[in-house]
Amino acid sequence: MKSSLPSLHWIKKKADFISKALSYNVRVSNIPPVKQWIKGELSYRQIRDIRIEDLLGRDTIKLDSAAVSSQVKGKTVLVTGAAGSIGSELVRQLLAYQPKLVVVLDQAETPVFQLENELNTAGYQGKFEVVMGDVRQADRMRRMMTHFRPQIIYHAAAYKHVPLMENNPSEAVLSNVLGTRIMADLAEEFSVEKFVFISTDKAVNPTSVMGATKRAAEIYIQSKDRHSKAAFVTTRFGNVLGSNGSVIPIFKKQIEEGGPITVTHPDVTRFFMTIPEAVQLVLEAGAMSEGGEIYAFDMGESVKVIDLANNMIKLSDSNLVAILKWYSPD
Length: 330
Prior knowledge:
Elements: H1 8-23, E1 29-30, E2 48-49, H2 66-72, E3 76-80, H3 85-95, E4 101-106, H4 109-121, E5 128-132, H5 138-148, E6 152-155, H6 162-167, H7 169-189, E7 194-198, H8 209-226, E8 231-236, E9 239-241, H9 247-256, E10 261-263, E11 269-270, E12 272-274, H10 275-288, E13 294-296, E14 303-304, H11 305-315, E15 324-326
Helix pairs in contact: 2-10, 3-10, 5-7, 7-8
């Protein structure tokens, strides 16, 4: 899935300029375009610090929301793994499209509690309902489906931390494969219109337990689409800035603690997107799909993780000297 980026050249120049300034320890701030100034004058309130996403070298992706609105409005939508970084953003964005109800399903008590408070504070009382439950429990999931009868399912529930799943492969299989099978089977049984499976680029030629379980789940999802009236679609994306367990919060914590910052290898690179971008991809893919597709996101150029770490140090206004430590996850 690609988006037209008419300003990509300027965005790349901006990112290069910021990186160059940071290399000389120059503080950089961001001001909006002149057309966004208040009555033609720049207010100090419009000046903001540079964020790490400003260094991605591409514009923020914004997709057409009309198709999403026509699909979601007035319907009951289920989000599994709804308390996670992707799931919770899915809930937030879905509520803006005026669904009949968003069912917020997760097994993590404290994150669910925090999300419920946030949504109530934002004025969404009565527009969502929280369900505590595990996608691996077929009977519990069937009772939930019987009660709510969702028309659309966004399946985000999964174990995703690669090293942790290497040491706990049975749990990865139970959640990522069995849990997905249970939800997909129920989607077919209850005549769900669309089932959107949230996968990862680590499922491509997988080299880890986590990646292999997500690939197995993808294959099952595609097989369901061939024999079901429901449309089953898969979305893949890479590293998400700020998501639980991503390098951004890890590096931030390490910086706050004075280092060292752990990087797997000095030459390692990664593709990044922001959480809102990832969720927009999921919603757009779900809306435009007819079933059986696997959508991948064009994430621009890869970023060296060591450069990301050094820039985070400089953006933090920390006196920390960039202490980088190489480590092997093995």
